[in-house]
TrEMBL record:
The protein's name: Nicotianamine synthase
The species this protein was found in: Arabis alpina (Alpine rock-cress)
Reactions catalysed, as given in the entry: 3 S-adenosyl-L-methionine = nicotianamine + 3 S-methyl-5'-thioadenosine + 3 H(+)
Enzyme Commission code: 2.5.1.43
Highest classification ranks of the organism: Eukaryota, Viridiplantae, Streptophyta, Embryophyta, Tracheophyta
Molecular function terms from GO: nicotianamine synthase activity
């Protein structure tokens, strides 16, 4: 381990100890300060640091930290969703009070752009978002600014999260007619998954590799052939905050691209389609004929990896 890696791990482990000793992970001054420090430590892009290959003791801390971050994120979203629903007018007009709203705007634009590139002009009619939570900002941003005729079905296992989320959008005449909430474990959702052109899987649905792969296998079993699966992942030190999804985890899917932001948007995005050509939208997906491309798009401030089979004439 290099000196840089040692210092990074030491800083993160010290913050983990402080965070794990907090009485509560609900929003407070102490919680906000420590998580701000944690994100600031992990966010500088450093793809040369592979957190999955660090020693067992660091891996244990990483897994615990991801779960802690998930709990804290849930509390934060619940807190702000409750505040937003207290507004007498349309709560969606006040989303900017959420401290990470601009990050969701950026992420939503990135995900819409890569969907547009992958679907070759096809506009998805029905989208599922799994793990939408009490503040379903991805669905709201996409429905409000990018996919204005698309129906969104949000799935979450927590009834209180769905109750708040439903109340949040209820005052918006347009969004409330195109957004639905389902309280269910996604592992119990089967045949209805075939009706979605695109399925989003939130970063914290499946907080470790085994759980994540189980969910992916379930989606593969029931999604329509050719449908797009979009997953949130992480790269480099950001893997201390969110689970990392590798292309090899997506058995039965063709990985179209992996986007690694290098700005303050933390999550990477993996775009894939379920293999098969039975109806659906598979024929509309943009082909990828590059073996592996690394680039930096300054406009969107993100690193890109595209995966696909190299055609013979380029071999």
């Amino acid at each position: 381990m290099s000196c840089q890696e040692e210092q990074l791990v030491k800083t993160i482990c010290d913050l983990y100890e402080k965070i794990s000793n907090l009485e509560s992970l609900k929003p407070s001054q102490d919680v906000n300060i420590l998580f701000t420090q944690l994100v600031a430590t992990c966010i500088p892009p450093n793809p040369n640091i592979d957190v999955t290959k660090m020693c067992e003791s660091v891996q244990e801390i990483r897994q615990k930290l991801i779960k802690i971050c998930g709990v804290a994120e849930g509390y934060l979203e619940h807190h702000f969703s409750s505040i937003l629903t207290s507004f007498q007018d349309n709560p969606l007009n006040h989303l900017n009070i959420f401290p990470y709203y601009n990050n969701y705007l950026k992420l939503g634009k990135l995900e819409f752009d890569l969907l547009t590139q992958s679907l070759n002009g096809f506009v998805p009619k029905n989208i599922a978002f799994i793990g939408s939570g009490p503040l379903p900002l991805t669905s709201i941003v996409l429905a409000s600014f990018h996919l204005k005729d698309t129906i969104f079905h949000n799935f979450d296992i927590d009834p209180s999260a769905n109750s708040l989320a439903s109340l949040l959008v209820s005052s918006d005449q347009d969004i409330s007619q195109r957004m639905f909430f389902h309280t269910v474990d996604i592992m119990d959702v089967t045949e209805s998954l075939k009706s979605f052109d695109v399925v989003f899987l939130a970063a914290l649905v499946g907080m470790d590799k085994v759980e994540k792969v189980k969910v992916i296998e379930h989606l593969h079993k029931y999604m329509a052939p050719g449908a797009v699966l979009m997953l949130r992942s992480a790269n480099g030190p950001r893997g201390f905050l969110y689970p990392i999804v590798e292309p090899c985890d997506l058995q039965g899917f063709e990985v179209l691209s992996v986007y690694h932001p290098i700005d303050d948007v933390i999550n990477s995005v993996v775009v894939s389609k379920k293999l098969g050509n039975v109806g659906g939208i598979s024929c509309l997906l943009k082909p990828c004929n590059c073996s592996k491309i690394h680039a930096i798009m300054n406009k969107n401030m993100m690193m890109i990896e595209e995966f696909g089979a190299m055609e013979e004439q380029f071999s």
